Amino acid sequence: FQVKSENKKTIWSTEEVPEGSEFDDTWDPREQPEYEILFKQRVGTEDVFFGMTGKDPSTACCEDLVIKIKLPETKYSDITLDIQDKVLDLRTPKKKLLLHLPYPVNSKEGRARFLSEEEILEVTLRISRAFDFIN
């Protein structure tokens, strides 16, 4: 068995290590909050009434990914959020969430808002995918 890399002292290549594994901490006692992943589409009358653009209700036609995370007894100032292309990392004093996202996202263009009445953090991220006949 021989490792193929530029550096002979490297024991694995970067392709073998999944993105976000540096955040994994199995010894962290904080519990994972409840969350929900939703997909969001931008549609117009040409989509709804005429079906001209070929969009359908599948996730392949969605432009945005919305993650709703329940954070009871949490203040906005206690939330630490880090988003990468395929990973969402959320930390609070009582909760921890490391979420591998179903699609790559544009980590630079996103929006997060904390709904204090419902104690929910809502994160909206733009899905980044190659252009095809739908997108």
UniProtKB/TrEMBL annotation:
Residues 32-127 form the PIH1D1/2/3 CS-like domain. Residues 16-26 have a biased composition (Acidic residues). InterPro entries: DNAAF6 (IPR026697), PIH1D1/2/3_CS-like (IPR041442). GO terms for molecular function: dynein intermediate chain binding; protein-folding chaperone binding. GO terms for cellular component: cytoplasm. Residues 1-28 are annotated as: Disordered. One of its GO terms (biological process) is flagellated sperm motility. Belongs to the PIH1 family. This is PIHD3 protein. It comes from Dasyornis broadbenti. The lineage of its organism: Eukaryota, Metazoa, Chordata, Craniata, Vertebrata.
